[in-house]
Write a structure and sequence with these properties.
The protein is mainly alpha-helical and 192 residues long. It is 60% helix and 7% strand. 5% of the residues are buried.
Length: 192
């Protein structure tokens, strides 16, 4: 009996070992074929410029010359186009003649200042002499004559002040004409 038990136990152990063996896992298979390997990703989009600047002329006119084209890189201060504006050209010539007239006005005002100064110096010297003579010999010169000399000297001083103010105004007018002239020069070109 012992032999039968040992045989049976040996058989059972063999059955247990068969149960522990695992079945192989299944895998998908495909047939090998030749072809291009690629991976394409398509997206919709658009390019946008770094900076967009709208350029408009300050005045309407005719384009004489365009120095740049669409898409060209430009830098600050670069001339983009030259306009031909007949009305502005006439106004520009008018400002040039105004500048010349203001220079003539300055010359005339300078001459008037020197004339008024000379007249004042002469009238003031006359008054000073009369005052000195009256002080040395009282009653020699009439009070009316001293008053007339004093009023003439004061009036000539006022004329000299007026001529100086007129000269300053003429110089300011000339400066304004020069500024206007240079502004016309700058406005003749479109810049960035």
């Amino acid at each position: 009996m012992c032999a039968v038990i040992v045989c049976l136990a040996g058989c059972r152990g063999g059955a247990d070992s068969k149960k522990n063996v695992q079945q192989p896992t299944s895998a998908a298979v495909a047939i090998v074929q030749r072809g291009n390997i690629s991976h394409v990703l398509s997206l919709a989009g658009q390019f946008q410029p770094y900076q967009v600047v709208d350029v408009h002329a300050k005045v309407s006119g005719y384009v004489r010359h365009i120095y740049v084209d669409i898409g060209d890189r430009v830098r600050a201060g670069q001339t983009l186009a030259t306009l031909e504006v007949p009305e502005l050209n006439a106004q520009y010539r008018s400002t040039q003649s105004e500048a010349l007239r203001s220079q003539d006005a300055i010359s005339a005002a300078q001459h008037e200042v020197s004339r008024a100064r000379s007249l004042h110096v002469a009238l003031q010297a006359n008054y000073d002499r009369l005052v000195e003579a009256s002080a040395q010999r009282p009653g020699l010169i009439a009070a009316q004559e001293l008053d007339n000399a004093r009023s003439q000297a004061d009036a000539s001083q006022e004329q000299m002040n007026a001529a100086t103010a007129e000269l300053a105004a003429a110089q300011q007018g000339a400066n304004a004409a020069v500024r206007t002239n240079s502004a016309w020069e700058r406005s003749r070109h479109i810049r960035t």
